[in-house]
Amino acid sequence: MFCRDCGEKLTLRFMENEGLVPYCGNCGKFKFPFFPVAVSMVVVRRTDNRIMLAKHAQDDDFKLIAGYIKKGESAERTIPRELREETALTAVKWKYLGSRYHDAKDILMLGFLVTADGGEPVLNEELTEVRWCDPAEAKEIIRKNSTAEYFLNAALTDLARKK
After folding, report:
1. Burial code of 119-147, b = ≥16 C-beta within 10 A, e = fewer?
2. If DSSP codes are grouped into helix, strand and coil, which group holds residue 92?
3. In DSSP terms, which residues pair with 132 in a beta bridge?
4. Mean per-residue pLDDT over the chain, rounded
5. Which terminus of the chain faces fewer neighbouring Cβ atoms within 10 Å, N or C?
């Protein structure tokens, strides 16, 4: 590990209430590990509560819409930006579902239930297929044992409470 600020090799040093933490001798500061954060969205169509699942380029599995949070951006600003960029749909409202570490990409995923207003998603270089599903179909075709399935199940539990 190297310091993000000066490039110096980091050493582990004990920090009260934290344990061993990377430390830069050149900067004289503890440097907590950094990893990216993204939003994962269970997108529900406002008119009929159908759930959008999508196949992304270079992938044959149906997944949720997701996107990285940019530096200086909040999760709340990322949701409408990413949904519009990937599908051309508008996010009307959203609700936080929880978080989960996604080991495959070394990323913290923040799950949201997102209501989209009308229209049909536009396919682009990121998305090769989009399908609006009822809850049973969504559970059937989502990638099994995935972070997407975890957030889908949380969203379905939340939606069932509203009935």
Report:
1. eebeeeeebeebebbebeebeeebbeebb
2. strand
3. 52
4. 93
5. C
Number of domains observed in the structure of the chain? 2
Per the structure, the complete domain to which residue 15 belongs is given by 1-34
Is residue 90 over pLDDT 70?
yes
CATH code at position 5: 2.20.70
Question: Which residues are bridge partners to 80 per DSSP?
Answer: none
How large is the average pLDDT for residues 145-162? 93
Give the H/E segment covering residue 77.
Answer: helix 75-87
Which DSSP helix (H) or strand (E) runs through 11?
strand 11-15
How many Cβ atoms from other residues are within 10 Å of residue 115's Cβ? Answer: 16
What pLDDT shows up at residue 57?
A: 86
Q: How confident is the model at residue 19, as a pLDDT?
A: 93
pLDDT of residue 163: 62
- Asked if 20 and 43 sit in the same domain, the reply is no
CATH code: domain of residue 135? 3.90.79.10
Torsion of CA 123, 84, 93, 154, to 10 degrees: 50
Mean pLDDT, range 7-36, rounded to an integer:
92
The whole-number pLDDT of residue 35 equals 79
Identity of residue 92:
V
59 and 132 share one domain: yes
